[in-house]
What does this fold into?
Amino acid sequence: MHLYIHVPFCARRCSYCDFAIAVRREVPSEAFAAAIRREWEGWQDDPAWAESPLLETIYFGGGTPSRLAADQLAALLLRFRQDRPVAADAEITLEANPDDVGAADAAAWVAAGVNRVSLGAQSFSPRALAWMHRTHDEAQIGEAVRTLREAGLNNLSLDFIYALPADIPRDWNADLDRALALEPTHLSLYGLTVERGTPLGHWTARGETIVAPDERAAEEFLAAHQRVTEAGFEHYEVSNAARPGFRARHNSAYWKRRPFIGLGPSAHSGFGALRAWNLREWEEYRRRSEAGESPRSAAETLTPEQVALEELYLGLRTSEGVEAGRVPPEHAQRWRGAGWATEQGERLRLTPEGWLRLDALVASLTHC
It folds into this structure.
């Protein structure tokens, strides 16, 4: 079993963010932890535990989980361990912003059991960080990395965004240089996307911002692939690369369709064909929780065809690919001829050029 906890609180909303967040100057850590405990209690009799009794990964995502009071984080992890067996080598990840990382915080996270941190760097460019509405500056990224390592947190991932608008003075290659110089164990590299309702969505709708053309986004993606692989990283999923032995086990569980429980506003849970998700907004989630009501928003059961398509899509996202027989021969042949895929043994794997076309390639299979 894999456990995700969505911590929605942020100091401000980033310009591109469409996640379920709650901007708060003061984080209601005690109320949040109490609501998570109540939801967790409701999962204890779920039949899914019969087949997956052991917690292998725990992931605090957001939002900005590093803004949650360390004592409440520790109390939640203790509660999870009291109620369910946790693997001795469990991966326990905390997402953090660089400006939240102080020596006392890092030490408290380690004491609570956190052994992996995903640091939201996004860029080293001051102009880019300001445009993104990030709350940290470029110097705080390196300072956070040093502080985390001094606390003993050496399993460290850095997040970056590429394909920014052309009018934002940001050198992608320079960002890659500085990121690799910090010697992280993992890198997550995401192309900028425009979501409706976000500041970026409004800017583009008004013509104030022009998004990067697909050609430049592709160039930056391929440049990142080359740089990280030359540096010894395994580019093991479209947006993720890791040193050998440091792949994100929690995220890998999603791509392999392992069972997972999601706690908190907007969190999703999945077991086989079942999908369920919670209310999106924190205040409604809190109200329901305090009233003794379920925070679940909806659920669905995927059809066998939907499950097969999900398995195909998720498999093609990864460097392991899928069984060659899952893709019709005429499609596989065309993909290989175009340089979008390779076939090794009985596995069909997309190349980086194929990953750029992943959505279109999978969509073409649904119309066979």
